[in-house]
Amino acid sequence: MRVITEIFLSSKRDEMYLYVDKQKGTKELPEELMQYFGKPEAVMTLLITPTTKLARVDAKEVCKALISKGYYLQMPPVREEYLLDLYRAPTESRY
Fold first, then answer.
1. Is residue 95 situated within a structural domain?
2. What is the DSSP code (8-state) at residue 22?
3. In the list 15, 22, 34, 68, which could disulfide-bond 4, CB 3.0-4.6 Å?
4. Does residue 62 lie in a domain region?
5. CATH number of the domain to which 23 belongs
6. Is the CB of residue 73 less than 8 Å from the CB of residue 12?
7. CA distance 3 to 23
8. Residues of 62-81 as b/e, b for ≥16 C-beta within 10 angstroms?
9. Which of 70, 73, 2 lies closest to 36, judged by CA?
10. In terms of pLDDT, which residue wins out, 94 or 32?
11. Chain mean pLDDT for the chain
């Protein structure tokens, strides 16, 4: 099971990626998915096998999804609540 995969970055959501079979492209993907994902921005092309090491997802899961559905959607990581406080903190220094 080897799939040449095109990986796209979402224009609507940070750290969301879409993996598709390079031969099929994005033309056959569901319209609802593409509306949710936004305009795809190509990031890289990889040959994915079940033993490929990927940063946040299991390669076996990606391969299965590519063969059965034609795509794999990698959702952004869950942010811990305490990390969100860093974004809410004022950025201006006060002495």
1. no
2. T
3. 22
4. yes
5. 3.10.510.20
6. no
7. 9
8. bbebbeeeebbbbeeeeeee
9. 73
10. 32
11. 86
